[in-house]
Amino acid sequence: MADDLCQLIEQREPRVQLVCVPSLLPAMRWPADFSGDPAFQRTPEEQLRFEDLLDSADALYGIPDVSPDALRRVVRNNPRLRWVHTMAAGGGSQVKQADLSPGELERVTFTTSAGIHGEPLAEFAVFGLLAGAKSLPRLLRQQRDHEWSGRWTMGQVAEQTVLVLGLGGIGRVVAAKLSALGATVIGVSRRTVTVEGVDQVIHPDELVAAAARIDAVVNTLPGTIATEHMLGDGFFAAVQGGVTVVNVGRGTVIDERALVTALDAGRVGFAALDVFESEPLPDDSPLWDRPDVLVSPHTAALSAAEDRRIAELFASNATRFLDGRPLLNRVDTVEFY
Ligand SMILES: NC(=O)c1ccc[n+]([C@@H]2O[C@H](COP(=O)([O-])OP(=O)(O)OC[C@H]3O[C@@H](n4cnc5c(N)ncnc54)[C@H](OP(=O)(O)O)[C@@H]3O)[C@@H](O)[C@H]2O)c1
Fold this sequence. Notes:
Layout: H1 3-12, H2 44-54, E1 59-61, H3 68-77, E2 83-85, H4 91-97, H5 102-107, E3 109-111, H6 118-133, H7 136-144, E4 161-165, H8 169-180, E5 184-188, E6 200-202, H9 207-211, E7 216-219, H10 233-238, E8 243-247, H11 256-265, E9 268-273, E10 293-295, H12 306-323
Parallel strand pairs: 1-2, 2-3, 4-5, 4-7, 5-6, 7-8, 8-9, 9-10
Helix pairs in contact: 1-12, 6-8
Residues 89-90, 114-115, 117, 121, 166-171, 189-191, 204, 220-224, 226-227, 248-250, 274-275, 298, 300-301, 337 line the site of NADP nicotinamide-adenine-dinucleotide phosphate.
Pfam families: 2-Hacid_dh_C (PF02826)
GO molecular function: NAD binding; oxidoreductase activity
Organism: Cryobacterium tepidiphilum
Protein backbone atom coordinates (compact mmCIF):
# COMPACT_ATOMS: atom_id res chain seq x y z
CA MET A 1 0.00 0.00 0.00
CA ALA A 2 1.34 3.40 -0.98
CA ASP A 3 2.39 5.73 1.87
CA ASP A 4 -0.32 8.27 1.09
CA LEU A 5 -3.00 5.58 1.44
CA CYS A 6 -1.55 4.43 4.78
CA GLN A 7 -1.82 8.05 5.91
CA LEU A 8 -5.35 8.33 4.56
CA ILE A 9 -6.50 5.34 6.65
CA GLU A 10 -4.74 6.56 9.80
CA GLN A 11 -6.14 10.09 9.36
CA ARG A 12 -9.68 8.87 8.81
CA GLU A 13 -9.51 6.42 11.71
CA PRO A 14 -6.73 7.45 14.13
CA ARG A 15 -7.50 4.49 16.39
CA VAL A 16 -6.02 2.18 13.71
CA GLN A 17 -2.34 1.34 13.92
CA LEU A 18 -1.23 0.13 10.49
CA VAL A 19 1.78 -2.15 10.20
CA CYS A 20 3.12 -1.88 6.63
CA VAL A 21 6.41 -3.57 5.73
CA PRO A 22 6.71 -3.35 1.93
CA SER A 23 9.96 -5.35 1.86
CA LEU A 24 8.01 -8.42 2.99
CA LEU A 25 5.63 -8.23 0.04
CA PRO A 26 6.14 -8.92 -3.68
CA ALA A 27 6.14 -5.92 -6.00
CA MET A 28 2.94 -5.38 -7.98
CA ARG A 29 3.52 -5.93 -11.72
CA TRP A 30 0.51 -3.88 -12.75
CA PRO A 31 -2.42 -2.10 -11.04
CA ALA A 32 -4.40 -4.33 -8.69
CA ASP A 33 -1.80 -7.11 -8.95
CA PHE A 34 -2.40 -8.03 -5.31
CA SER A 35 -0.68 -11.41 -5.53
CA GLY A 36 2.38 -9.67 -6.97
CA ASP A 37 5.45 -10.90 -8.82
CA PRO A 38 5.60 -14.74 -8.51
CA ALA A 39 9.41 -14.56 -8.67
CA PHE A 40 9.40 -12.93 -5.20
CA GLN A 41 10.53 -15.16 -2.37
CA ARG A 42 11.03 -14.47 1.33
CA THR A 43 14.07 -15.83 3.09
CA PRO A 44 13.16 -18.23 5.92
CA GLU A 45 13.84 -15.38 8.40
CA GLU A 46 11.60 -13.00 6.43
CA GLN A 47 8.85 -15.62 6.27
CA LEU A 48 8.99 -16.01 10.05
CA ARG A 49 8.82 -12.26 10.52
CA PHE A 50 5.91 -12.02 8.05
CA GLU A 51 3.97 -14.75 9.87
CA ASP A 52 4.74 -13.17 13.26
CA LEU A 53 3.22 -9.90 12.06
CA LEU A 54 0.17 -11.67 10.64
CA ASP A 55 -0.27 -13.65 13.83
CA SER A 56 -0.32 -10.55 16.03
CA ALA A 57 -2.84 -8.51 14.03
CA ASP A 58 -6.48 -7.88 14.90
CA ALA A 59 -7.32 -7.25 11.25
CA LEU A 60 -5.71 -7.87 7.87
CA TYR A 61 -5.76 -5.59 4.82
CA GLY A 62 -5.85 -8.28 2.15
CA ILE A 63 -5.46 -12.06 2.17
CA PRO A 64 -1.79 -12.97 2.88
CA ASP A 65 -0.13 -13.82 -0.45
CA VAL A 66 -3.72 -14.11 -1.83
CA SER A 67 -3.36 -17.76 -0.84
CA PRO A 68 -6.15 -19.91 0.67
CA ASP A 69 -3.51 -21.92 2.57
CA ALA A 70 -1.92 -18.79 4.03
CA LEU A 71 -5.36 -17.50 5.03
CA ARG A 72 -6.24 -20.78 6.75
CA ARG A 73 -2.86 -20.77 8.55
CA VAL A 74 -3.28 -17.28 9.98
CA VAL A 75 -6.91 -17.85 11.03
CA ARG A 76 -5.79 -21.00 12.91
CA ASN A 77 -2.64 -19.45 14.42
CA ASN A 78 -3.91 -16.04 15.42
CA PRO A 79 -6.70 -16.26 18.01
CA ARG A 80 -7.06 -12.45 18.16
CA LEU A 81 -7.78 -12.10 14.43
CA ARG A 82 -11.31 -10.71 14.00
CA TRP A 83 -11.49 -9.20 10.52
CA VAL A 84 -9.96 -9.75 7.06
CA HIS A 85 -10.65 -7.36 4.19
CA THR A 86 -10.19 -8.86 0.70
CA MET A 87 -8.87 -6.64 -2.05
CA ALA A 88 -11.13 -8.34 -4.61
CA ALA A 89 -14.80 -7.48 -4.99
CA GLY A 90 -15.44 -11.19 -5.48
CA GLY A 91 -13.35 -12.03 -2.39
CA GLY A 92 -16.03 -14.43 -1.16
CA SER A 93 -14.72 -17.15 -3.48
CA GLN A 94 -11.19 -16.67 -2.06
CA VAL A 95 -12.56 -17.13 1.46
CA LYS A 96 -14.46 -20.25 0.36
CA GLN A 97 -11.23 -21.79 -0.98
CA ALA A 98 -9.65 -21.53 2.50
CA ASP A 99 -12.14 -24.17 3.67
CA LEU A 100 -12.56 -22.67 7.15
CA SER A 101 -14.69 -24.31 9.84
CA PRO A 102 -18.08 -22.80 10.83
CA GLY A 103 -16.50 -21.64 14.12
CA GLU A 104 -13.64 -19.91 12.29
CA LEU A 105 -16.07 -18.22 9.90
CA GLU A 106 -18.03 -16.95 12.89
CA ARG A 107 -14.97 -15.66 14.77
CA VAL A 108 -13.43 -13.81 11.82
CA THR A 109 -15.50 -11.39 9.73
CA PHE A 110 -14.57 -11.21 6.05
CA THR A 111 -15.35 -8.18 3.93
CA THR A 112 -14.83 -7.51 0.21
CA SER A 113 -14.19 -4.51 -2.02
CA ALA A 114 -17.57 -4.99 -3.77
CA GLY A 115 -19.25 -1.83 -4.97
CA ILE A 116 -16.16 0.22 -5.82
CA HIS A 117 -16.12 -0.90 -9.46
CA GLY A 118 -19.60 0.25 -10.41
CA GLU A 119 -18.57 3.22 -12.56
CA PRO A 120 -15.77 1.65 -14.65
CA LEU A 121 -17.68 -1.59 -15.18
CA ALA A 122 -20.90 0.21 -16.08
CA GLU A 123 -18.94 2.17 -18.70
CA PHE A 124 -17.52 -1.08 -20.06
CA ALA A 125 -21.06 -2.47 -20.23
CA VAL A 126 -22.24 0.59 -22.17
CA PHE A 127 -19.19 0.29 -24.42
CA GLY A 128 -20.00 -3.38 -25.13
CA LEU A 129 -23.67 -2.65 -25.81
CA LEU A 130 -22.80 0.22 -28.15
CA ALA A 131 -20.19 -1.91 -29.94
CA GLY A 132 -22.86 -4.56 -30.51
CA ALA A 133 -25.53 -2.09 -31.60
CA LYS A 134 -23.17 -0.28 -34.00
CA SER A 135 -21.76 -3.53 -35.50
CA LEU A 136 -18.17 -2.84 -34.46
CA PRO A 137 -16.81 -6.18 -35.80
CA ARG A 138 -18.25 -5.43 -39.28
CA LEU A 139 -16.88 -1.87 -39.26
CA LEU A 140 -13.41 -3.11 -38.27
CA ARG A 141 -13.43 -5.85 -40.90
CA GLN A 142 -14.62 -3.56 -43.70
CA GLN A 143 -12.05 -0.90 -42.83
CA ARG A 144 -9.28 -3.49 -42.74
CA ASP A 145 -10.42 -4.72 -46.22
CA HIS A 146 -10.93 -1.15 -47.57
CA GLU A 147 -14.51 -2.18 -48.33
CA TRP A 148 -17.00 0.66 -48.84
CA SER A 149 -20.15 -1.43 -48.71
CA GLY A 150 -23.79 -0.56 -49.15
CA ARG A 151 -25.36 1.14 -46.17
CA TRP A 152 -27.11 -0.68 -43.34
CA THR A 153 -29.18 0.30 -40.35
CA MET A 154 -27.55 0.35 -36.94
CA GLY A 155 -29.12 -0.57 -33.64
CA GLN A 156 -29.87 2.10 -31.06
CA VAL A 157 -29.44 1.38 -27.39
CA ALA A 158 -32.21 3.92 -26.79
CA GLU A 159 -34.62 1.52 -28.46
CA GLN A 160 -33.35 -1.61 -26.78
CA THR A 161 -34.59 -3.68 -23.89
CA VAL A 162 -31.62 -4.70 -21.77
CA LEU A 163 -31.63 -7.39 -19.10
CA VAL A 164 -29.30 -6.61 -16.17
CA LEU A 165 -28.45 -9.61 -13.98
CA GLY A 166 -27.74 -8.52 -10.41
CA LEU A 167 -28.76 -5.23 -8.83
CA GLY A 168 -25.86 -4.75 -6.42
CA GLY A 169 -23.08 -2.18 -6.57
CA ILE A 170 -22.34 -2.78 -10.25
CA GLY A 171 -25.83 -3.62 -11.52
CA ARG A 172 -27.33 -0.44 -10.11
CA VAL A 173 -24.85 1.82 -11.91
CA VAL A 174 -25.29 -0.17 -15.14
CA ALA A 175 -29.07 0.29 -14.89
CA ALA A 176 -28.76 4.04 -14.24
CA LYS A 177 -26.47 4.56 -17.25
CA LEU A 178 -28.63 2.47 -19.58
CA SER A 179 -31.74 4.28 -18.44
CA ALA A 180 -30.01 7.61 -19.13
CA LEU A 181 -29.34 6.38 -22.67
CA GLY A 182 -33.04 5.68 -23.07
CA ALA A 183 -32.96 1.88 -22.87
CA THR A 184 -35.70 -0.12 -21.20
CA VAL A 185 -34.06 -1.96 -18.31
CA ILE A 186 -35.23 -5.27 -16.86
CA GLY A 187 -33.34 -6.08 -13.66
CA VAL A 188 -32.89 -9.58 -12.23
CA SER A 189 -32.97 -9.98 -8.46
CA ARG A 190 -34.05 -12.54 -5.90
CA ARG A 191 -35.63 -9.76 -3.86
CA THR A 192 -38.52 -7.41 -4.42
CA VAL A 193 -36.55 -4.20 -4.89
CA THR A 194 -37.12 -0.84 -6.49
CA VAL A 195 -34.01 0.44 -8.25
CA GLU A 196 -33.61 3.74 -10.04
CA GLY A 197 -33.47 3.25 -13.78
CA VAL A 198 -34.93 -0.26 -13.67
CA ASP A 199 -38.33 -0.50 -15.39
CA GLN A 200 -39.14 -4.00 -14.19
CA VAL A 201 -37.56 -6.45 -11.77
CA ILE A 202 -37.86 -10.16 -12.46
CA HIS A 203 -36.79 -13.23 -10.45
CA PRO A 204 -33.99 -15.47 -11.81
CA ASP A 205 -36.65 -18.17 -12.38
CA GLU A 206 -38.20 -15.88 -15.03
CA LEU A 207 -35.01 -15.47 -17.08
CA VAL A 208 -35.89 -17.80 -19.93
CA ALA A 209 -39.37 -16.30 -20.27
CA ALA A 210 -37.84 -12.81 -20.50
CA ALA A 211 -35.14 -13.87 -22.97
CA ALA A 212 -37.40 -13.64 -26.02
CA ARG A 213 -38.09 -9.92 -25.50
CA ILE A 214 -34.58 -8.59 -24.90
CA ASP A 215 -32.01 -7.03 -27.22
CA ALA A 216 -29.09 -7.35 -24.84
CA VAL A 217 -28.02 -8.80 -21.50
CA VAL A 218 -25.43 -7.56 -19.00
CA ASN A 219 -24.23 -9.91 -16.25
CA THR A 220 -23.03 -8.32 -13.00
CA LEU A 221 -23.64 -11.36 -10.75
CA PRO A 222 -20.96 -12.94 -8.55
CA GLY A 223 -19.77 -16.52 -8.98
CA THR A 224 -21.69 -18.81 -6.59
CA ILE A 225 -23.26 -22.24 -6.84
CA ALA A 226 -26.64 -20.57 -7.48
CA THR A 227 -25.37 -18.35 -10.32
CA GLU A 228 -23.25 -20.96 -12.11
CA HIS A 229 -24.33 -21.20 -15.78
CA MET A 230 -27.43 -19.09 -15.08
CA LEU A 231 -26.99 -18.03 -18.70
CA GLY A 232 -26.84 -21.44 -20.33
CA ASP A 233 -28.51 -23.50 -23.06
CA GLY A 234 -32.05 -22.74 -21.89
CA PHE A 235 -31.50 -18.98 -21.93
CA PHE A 236 -29.49 -18.82 -25.15
CA ALA A 237 -32.00 -21.04 -26.98
CA ALA A 238 -34.71 -18.49 -26.12
CA VAL A 239 -32.94 -15.29 -27.24
CA GLN A 240 -33.30 -14.17 -30.81
CA GLY A 241 -32.30 -11.51 -33.27
CA GLY A 242 -28.59 -11.33 -32.56
CA VAL A 243 -28.61 -10.02 -28.98
CA THR A 244 -25.53 -8.47 -27.39
CA VAL A 245 -24.04 -10.18 -24.32
CA VAL A 246 -21.81 -8.37 -21.82
CA ASN A 247 -20.18 -10.04 -18.81
CA VAL A 248 -18.57 -7.88 -16.12
CA GLY A 249 -19.57 -10.04 -13.11
CA ARG A 250 -18.07 -13.53 -12.85
CA GLY A 251 -17.20 -15.77 -15.79
CA THR A 252 -18.90 -18.85 -14.34
CA VAL A 253 -22.34 -17.24 -14.70
CA ILE A 254 -22.17 -17.80 -18.48
CA ASP A 255 -21.87 -21.29 -19.95
CA GLU A 256 -19.29 -20.45 -22.63
CA ARG A 257 -20.07 -23.57 -24.65
CA ALA A 258 -23.74 -22.51 -24.86
CA LEU A 259 -22.68 -18.95 -25.73
CA VAL A 260 -20.52 -20.17 -28.64
CA THR A 261 -23.43 -22.27 -29.93
CA ALA A 262 -25.69 -19.20 -29.79
CA LEU A 263 -23.06 -17.05 -31.57
CA ASP A 264 -22.74 -19.70 -34.30
CA ALA A 265 -26.52 -19.74 -34.70
CA GLY A 266 -26.71 -15.93 -34.84
CA ARG A 267 -28.98 -15.74 -31.80
CA VAL A 268 -26.17 -13.81 -30.10
CA GLY A 269 -24.66 -11.20 -32.41
CA PHE A 270 -21.84 -9.86 -30.25
CA ALA A 271 -20.31 -10.52 -26.85
CA ALA A 272 -18.06 -8.24 -24.81
CA LEU A 273 -16.50 -10.31 -22.03
CA ASP A 274 -14.26 -9.09 -19.23
CA VAL A 275 -14.47 -12.33 -17.22
CA PHE A 276 -14.30 -15.99 -18.20
CA GLU A 277 -15.12 -19.42 -16.82
CA SER A 278 -11.39 -20.11 -16.58
CA GLU A 279 -8.79 -17.35 -16.24
CA PRO A 280 -6.42 -16.71 -17.89
CA LEU A 281 -8.59 -17.64 -20.90
CA PRO A 282 -7.09 -20.95 -22.12
CA ASP A 283 -5.14 -20.84 -25.41
CA ASP A 284 -7.57 -23.26 -27.02
CA SER A 285 -10.72 -21.30 -26.13
CA PRO A 286 -12.84 -20.72 -29.25
CA LEU A 287 -13.60 -17.22 -27.92
CA TRP A 288 -10.10 -15.91 -28.76
CA ASP A 289 -10.47 -16.02 -32.55
CA ARG A 290 -14.06 -14.88 -32.96
CA PRO A 291 -14.53 -11.43 -34.49
CA ASP A 292 -17.95 -11.30 -32.83
CA VAL A 293 -16.37 -11.58 -29.36
CA LEU A 294 -14.37 -8.92 -27.56
CA VAL A 295 -11.97 -10.48 -25.05
CA SER A 296 -10.92 -8.19 -22.19
CA PRO A 297 -8.43 -9.75 -19.73
CA HIS A 298 -10.38 -8.99 -16.53
CA THR A 299 -9.19 -5.41 -16.63
CA ALA A 300 -12.35 -3.36 -17.22
CA ALA A 301 -12.87 -2.62 -13.51
CA LEU A 302 -9.55 -0.96 -12.90
CA SER A 303 -9.29 2.77 -12.62
CA ALA A 304 -6.61 5.06 -11.24
CA ALA A 305 -8.79 5.41 -8.14
CA GLU A 306 -8.88 1.64 -7.38
CA ASP A 307 -6.40 1.58 -4.48
CA ARG A 308 -7.74 4.79 -2.93
CA ARG A 309 -11.33 3.52 -3.04
CA ILE A 310 -10.32 0.28 -1.32
CA ALA A 311 -8.42 2.25 1.36
CA GLU A 312 -11.44 4.53 1.93
CA LEU A 313 -13.76 1.54 2.23
CA PHE A 314 -11.35 -0.09 4.70
CA ALA A 315 -11.12 3.12 6.76
CA SER A 316 -14.89 3.46 7.08
CA ASN A 317 -15.19 -0.23 7.97
CA ALA A 318 -12.39 0.20 10.55
CA THR A 319 -14.53 2.83 12.27
CA ARG A 320 -17.51 0.49 12.24
CA PHE A 321 -15.33 -2.35 13.55
CA LEU A 322 -13.98 -0.28 16.44
CA ASP A 323 -17.43 1.07 17.27
CA GLY A 324 -18.88 -2.45 17.28
CA ARG A 325 -21.18 -1.70 14.34
CA PRO A 326 -21.87 -4.13 11.45
CA LEU A 327 -19.28 -3.96 8.67
CA LEU A 328 -20.09 -3.05 5.07
CA ASN A 329 -19.68 -5.75 2.39
CA ARG A 330 -19.60 -8.74 4.72
CA VAL A 331 -18.97 -11.99 2.89
CA ASP A 332 -22.04 -14.21 2.96
CA THR A 333 -20.53 -17.37 4.46
CA VAL A 334 -23.28 -19.60 3.07
CA GLU A 335 -23.07 -18.57 -0.60
CA PHE A 336 -19.57 -17.00 -0.38
CA TYR A 337 -19.96 -13.74 -2.30
N1 LIG B 1 -14.90 -7.54 -13.87
C1 LIG B 1 -14.30 -7.31 -12.72
O1 LIG B 1 -13.12 -7.03 -12.64
C2 LIG B 1 -15.11 -7.30 -11.47
C3 LIG B 1 -14.89 -6.27 -10.54
C4 LIG B 1 -15.71 -6.22 -9.43
C5 LIG B 1 -16.65 -7.22 -9.22
N2 LIG B 1 -16.76 -8.25 -10.09
C6 LIG B 1 -17.73 -9.34 -9.84
O2 LIG B 1 -19.01 -8.77 -9.78
C7 LIG B 1 -19.68 -9.26 -8.64
C8 LIG B 1 -20.69 -8.26 -8.18
O3 LIG B 1 -20.02 -7.08 -7.73
P1 LIG B 1 -20.84 -5.95 -6.96
O4 LIG B 1 -19.86 -4.93 -6.56
O5 LIG B 1 -22.04 -5.56 -7.76
O6 LIG B 1 -21.32 -6.83 -5.69
P2 LIG B 1 -22.55 -6.63 -4.72
O7 LIG B 1 -22.78 -5.17 -4.47
O8 LIG B 1 -22.30 -7.57 -3.58
O9 LIG B 1 -23.80 -7.17 -5.56
C9 LIG B 1 -23.99 -8.52 -5.85
C10 LIG B 1 -25.46 -8.67 -6.22
O10 LIG B 1 -25.63 -10.01 -6.73
C11 LIG B 1 -26.90 -10.44 -6.26
N3 LIG B 1 -26.98 -11.89 -6.27
C12 LIG B 1 -26.12 -12.79 -5.69
N4 LIG B 1 -26.53 -14.04 -5.94
C13 LIG B 1 -27.66 -13.94 -6.68
C14 LIG B 1 -28.55 -14.89 -7.25
N5 LIG B 1 -28.35 -16.20 -7.10
N6 LIG B 1 -29.61 -14.42 -7.95
C15 LIG B 1 -29.83 -13.10 -8.10
N7 LIG B 1 -29.04 -12.14 -7.57
C16 LIG B 1 -27.97 -12.57 -6.87
C17 LIG B 1 -26.99 -9.89 -4.87
O11 LIG B 1 -28.35 -9.85 -4.53
P3 LIG B 1 -28.88 -10.08 -3.04
O12 LIG B 1 -29.30 -8.72 -2.61
O13 LIG B 1 -30.03 -11.00 -3.23
O14 LIG B 1 -27.79 -10.65 -2.21
C18 LIG B 1 -26.40 -8.49 -5.04
O15 LIG B 1 -27.39 -7.56 -5.41
C19 LIG B 1 -18.56 -9.53 -7.63
O16 LIG B 1 -18.94 -10.52 -6.69
C20 LIG B 1 -17.44 -10.02 -8.51
O17 LIG B 1 -17.55 -11.42 -8.68
C21 LIG B 1 -16.03 -8.29 -11.22
